[in-house]
Specification:
Layout lengths: L10 E5 L4 E6 L11 H16 L4 E6 L4 E3 L4 H4 L5 H19 L5 E5 L2 E3 L1 H7 L3 E5 L5 E3 L13 H9 L1 H10 L3 E2 H7 L4 E3 L4 H9 L10 H6 L4 H15 L6 H13 L7 H8 L2 H18 L10 E5 L3 H12 L3 E5 L3 H18 L3 H9 L1 E3 L11 E4 L5 H14 L5 E4 L6 H5 L8 E5 L9 E6 L5 H13 L3 E6 L6 H17 L4 H11 L5 H8 L1 H12 L7 H8 L13 E3 L2 E3 L10 H18 L6 H12 L8 H9 L1
Parallel strand pairs: 2-3, 3-5, 4-6, 5-7, 6-8, 7-10, 11-12, 11-14, 12-13, 14-15, 15-16, 17-18
Antiparallel strand pairs: 1-2, 8-9, 16-17, 19-20
Length: 642
């Protein structure tokens, strides 16, 4: 086949001996494919070319190792400053993909790697979708995460293909699915290994087989019964997100239910979404996340073996996460009886994620109990994750240093102790770095990479590269009490407990911050963290000589430690919190509660604990769940003073 580019920068078109056209997207100057206006214009020209001499079939594929298509070009969203520009962007994709869907000859999307947003909308406009059975193949419509809607046909075609309930679940959560699940749902026509993908694509596109249709009930739910589905979906969304904070999921339901998924039929709604502060701030959060992902790229360090000391909830979950991400992990504690609960917890948690019993066994085989600590000598990364006691950690770290390879990374998961204090006993104090995870490890994406003044720069780079390797977001911070995340949470939780001391009920305090947009109220957060932990940090947070809040002290003295003991400020049963109804929220309560968090964040930037305001916003969003629609605490502060 001789590729024909027609002067296109991003597409190659080849026609093989069977008369099949292969359209390869290889976006110029980028490591991943995205559907910029230039890419879309060239696709239109490519279809013009094929109109002149129609092929037997058309197969779309990627020329990138990184995946199929990551979605639209997010950078272009930042330029939508008028209603006309927003509508034009939606119309461009809607009309082009409708044209693709109406072609007389068969079309197929050969999906290998990520296929997201506009990329999946392109694939949905094809007659067939062939998924490659690799762990990197993921499909989804995550536009809602950016505060926008899948306006290029996703709201029309995904419900038609897999039924509205599964489709709405994907669109309203932004969740992605793998190749096997795509086949099970009917999104993919087939799922094949990479070695046969080209032959399978050619065979399928010429097969003439009818598309798999959803069952009759799903077709009814996508037709005359759609109001029932819309009502149920709206109630589900309302449990997670308030319309005033996150209008996009409600717009997706409305456009699907009332306009058959055609966003152009609701131009005022689209404009209100596309140019909303929420969309602007969520796009900002996307770029903040990309910045965190860029850390560690300067190092080519790659770990194969990890040794974790401490099989408690945090250490055990760190070890389990590393094993899930493909590393061989040795987990050390004082005896096998202390390690066993961590292994059981990992097996239960990963069993819910991994359907294939053999794959689950492979993950668990990588998680090795090691009460004697033999794994430290072979590990590329050693993480200390025992209880917060300076002397105990020092003794442990000195012993580990003596056994470790000189080039291995030595890290502490300390949440409150200074790295320089821990490193003082080491022969090479410059080799110690903080790698601070948050609880629960499997859900919290942020990891603080903590450097003391003497910490070696190469060590920091290696630690950061390791955090990216295990698919977490590294945030470089300087060694200081509480680093960034805990340092801003402390004053916030303290102010919340002071409000309880004044007679405001815990549920009312929490309701004020849920209405503000937090994922969890500060009092429930204290229960999650543990009242014993809050007590230990309380005096340093409250300032020299200050007493902890009375409500905290009384419960702690009564042995009520929060979720871990079944009772704290609330009752906890079966992993669920039992809250009494909230009372009326006093005016200004949310502003009062969040003020210490905002002020402390600003101070930490001024003190250089975190490099700049954008990174502080990223850290507090991804480390605490701080209302993403605000764009972060300092961005929120600026907007209040604008």
């Amino acid at each position: 086949m001789n590729p024909d580019t027609h002067g296109w920068r991003n597409w190659r078109l080849e026609v093989d001996a069977q008369g099949l056209a292969w359209a390869t997207l290889d976006k110029a100057g980028e490591s991943t494919n995205s559907l910029s206006s230039a890419v879309m214009a060239e696709l239109s020209q490519l279809l013009d070319e094929l109109d002149r001499q129609p092929p037997k079939g058309l197969i779309f594929r990627s020329g990138k190792a990184a995946g199929f298509i990551a979605g639209a070009d997010i950078q272009e969203f930042t330029q939508l400053d008028t209603p006309a520009k927003g509508i034009e962007l939606v119309a461009r994709g809607w009309q082009l993909f409708n044209r693709l869907a109406a072609l007389r000859y068969p079309t197929l999307a050969l999906v290998r790697g990520h296929c997201l947003g506009g990329g999946l909308e392109l694939a949905l406009a094809c007659r067939y979708l062939l998924a490659i059975d690799e762990s990197s193949t993921r499909m989804g419509l995550p536009e809602v995460m950016l505060g926008i809607v899948p306006g290029w046909g996703g709201m029309l075609r995904l419900p038609e293909r897999i039924g509205p309930q599964a489709a709405l679940d994907m669109m309203l959560t932004g969740r992605t699915i793998d190749a096997k699940k795509a086949k099970r749902l009917g999104l993919a026509d087939d799922c094949v290994p990479p070695r046969v993908m080209d032959a399978a694509a050619a065979m399928l596109v010429l097969s003439g087989q009818a598309r798999r249709r959803p069952p009759v009930l799903q077709r009814l739910l996508n037709g005359p019964l759609r109001s029932i589905v819309a009502s149920g979906a709206t109630k589900q969304v309302a449990r997670r997100a308030r319309r005033e904070h996150y209008p996009a999921p409600y717009a997706i339901i409305d456009i699907w239910a009332r306009h058959q998924g055609n966003a152009l039929a609701a131009p005022e709604l689209i404009d209100s979404i596309v140019r909303s502060p929420t969309a602007r701030n969520l796009v900002r959060v996307f770029f903040l996340q990309e910045r965190l992902k860029s850390f560690g790229k300067a190092s080519n360090f790659s770990a194969r073996r990890v040794h974790v000391v401490g099989a408690g909830v945090m250490g055990g979950d760190i070890a389990a996460w590393c094993a899930l991400r493909g590393l061989t992990v040795t987990l050390q504690d004082q005896g096998i009886e202390r390690i066993a609960p961590a292994l059981q917890r990992a097996c239960t948690a990963w069993g819910k994620r991994i359907r294939d019993a053999r794959e689950l066994r492979r993950v668990m085989d990588r998680l090795i109990p090691d009460p004697e600590g033999h794994g430290a000598a072979q590990a590329d990364v050693v993480i200390e994750a025992i209880f917060e006691d300076l002397e105990a950690k020092r003794v442990l770290l000195a012993g580990l240093e003596a056994r470790m390879r000189p080039e291995a990374v030595l890290a502490s998961n300390t949440s409150s102790l200074r790295i320089e204090d821990l490193a003082a006993v080491l022969t090479r104090p410059e080799r110690l770095v903080g790698i601070h995870f948050f609880n629960p490890v499997a859900k919290m994406p942020l990891v603080e990479v903590v450097a003391a003044v003497e910490t070696d720069a190469e060590t920091v780079q290696r630690a950061t590269a390791f955090v990216r390797q295990i698919d977490r977001l590294p945030l470089p911070v300087k060694s200081a009490p509480g680093f960034l995340v805990n340092a801003v949470l402390g004053p916030y939780m303290l102010e919340a407990m002071r409000a309880v001391d004044e007679g405001i009920t815990p549920a009312t305090v929490d309701e004020a911050m849920l209405a503000f947009g937090m994922p969890m109220g500060p009092i429930e957060l204290v229960d999650m963290v543990g009242l014993d932990v809050a007590m230990a940090a309380g005096r340093s947070l409250a300032g020299s000589g200050a007493e902890p809040p009375r409500c905290l002290l009384d419960r702690f003295n009564a042995g009520h430690l929060g979720r871990k003991s079944g009772r704290g400020f609330y009752e906890h049963r079966g992993g669920k919190v039992a809250k009494p109804p909230a009372g009326p929220v006093p005016p200004g309560l949310a502003e009062r509660l969040v003020r210490p968090l905002l002020e402390r964040t600003r101070e930490l930037v001024a003190d250089g604990v975190v490099a700049d305001a954008d990174l502080a916003d990223a850290g507090v969003i991804f480390g605490t769940g701080f209302a993403p629609f605000t764009g972060g605490p300092l961005n929120y502060l600026r907007s209040q003073h604008a």
